[in-house]
Amino acid sequence: MTQAAAWDVLIVGGGLGGLSLAAELAQPQYAHLRVLVLEKRTRYQRDRTWSYWGTHRHRYTDLERHRWHRWSVRFEGRQCLQTSDIPYCTVDADAFYGAAVAQIAAATHVQLRMDCAVRAVNSPHTGDALLDVQLEDGSRESARWVMDARPAGKSGDAGLFQHFVGWEIRTPTDCFDDTLVELMDFQPACAGLHFFYVLPYGPRHALVETTWISTLGVPPDYEDELRAYLATRYGLGPFECIYQERGQLALQAEPQPTAHPRIVRVGQAAGTLRPSTGFAFLETLADARRLARCLGQAGSQTRAIASFRRKTLNRWMDRVFFQALASRWPVAPRYFLALFGGTTARTLVPFLAGNATLWQRLKVVMQLPKADFLRAAWQCVVG
């Protein structure tokens, strides 16, 4: 089969990372680049819900389904409430997909192909040669740059995972305070963290998730957990489930290096998911903007573009935090109560968003049990 004409940029995977980069490259200032996106799914539909603290506007701010200025954390009958001018925001995946695809469709220099699974990305034999992309149907494409948004290999069952199932429900009576997000309603657990997460869209309408942070073993009965929680916490009998989602996020998987400098990982494959929070949306959008600028400046040149790299201090603090959690699972929810109960939202929100000042970090650290976290830090040092 004859090899197709070369693309400047070929994006493998059209999820959050791939589509956000493609939408950036669809802007007029990048019209000198020919861009192709290959996505294996046949159509886009809602498959997840992204949430974040709205510290700034972005390309998809107007898609936010809801904003809250109050949130809480609960454990053992204690509740920590916080209120902030910085809202907690949520975006449904189908709204994002639709907006990104519309931007791509309006750009003549960007093309999106659905139902196109990639088998392999092959490195060239010489430094200036084009990268070869082999599709599952046997066809091939060539490109100067390949931006790979696929999961970076299977991590197996090692390490910690955030795994969850969520139901969006409608109830026959008022049940929810739609001004307050339940960030974490912790439940007793000995081999991990277990909490419920509630995004109330209205008094009779909410997304309720049962979430675990643990190693992978025998999976819990998520559906039974949700039914029991809705019955005991909200006194719910019959209700209507209008949407379901589930996910499994590897929290300790390190992004793997690529086989060539012009193959660059994108999105969560590059590590934009922050392990300690499970948030990736704003970080992924910011990295898409950075990569688009780099590709626009590179033009026909073939110099390397750096993949996303999380701040060293953030990575270190996340490692210590998980070490402390895993050492004392039954009391770990108290760490979160200490954080939310001992710091103001003005201090805590930038910390959770990943852009805290050194002083804000110190104020957060001072709320945590010193002995537990010094021990965890030492264990991270000695391995």
In short:
By secondary structure, this protein is an alpha/beta fold.
Number of strands: 15
The proportion of strand residues reads 25-35%
Strand order of the largest sheet: 3-5-4-11-12-13-10-14
What count of structural domains?
A: 3
Tell me, what is the CATH class of the largest domain? Answer: Alpha Beta
**What is the mean predicted local confidence, pLDDT?**
91
What letter string, H or E per element, gives the SSE order?
A: EHEEEEHEEEEEEEEHEEHHHHHH
Assign a percent range to the helix content: 25-40%
Which architecture of the largest domain per CATH?
3-Layer(bba) Sandwich
CATH fold label of the largest domain: FAD/NAD(P)-binding domain
- CATH superfamily descriptor of the largest domain: FAD/NAD(P)-binding domain
Span from first to last CA? 51 Å
Number of helices: 9
> How would you classify the helix and strand content by structural class?
alpha/beta
Unreliable stretches: none
Describe the largest sheet. 8 strands, mixed
Shape estimate: globular
Q: Mind explaining what this structure looks like?
A:
- The chain is α/β, with parallel strands linked by helices and 383 residues long.
- It has 3 domains: 7-47 and 92-152 and 255-298, FAD/NAD(P)-binding domain (3-Layer(bba) Sandwich); 156-247, 2-Layer Sandwich (D-Amino Acid Oxidase, Chain A, domain 2), CATH 3.30.9.10; 313-382, no CATH class.
- The chain has 9 helices and 15 strands.
- A hairpin with a 2-residue loop joins β12 (193-202) and β13.
- α1 (16-25) runs parallel beside α2 (93-105), α1 crosses α4 (281-298) and α5 packs across α9.
- The chain is globular and about 65 Å long.
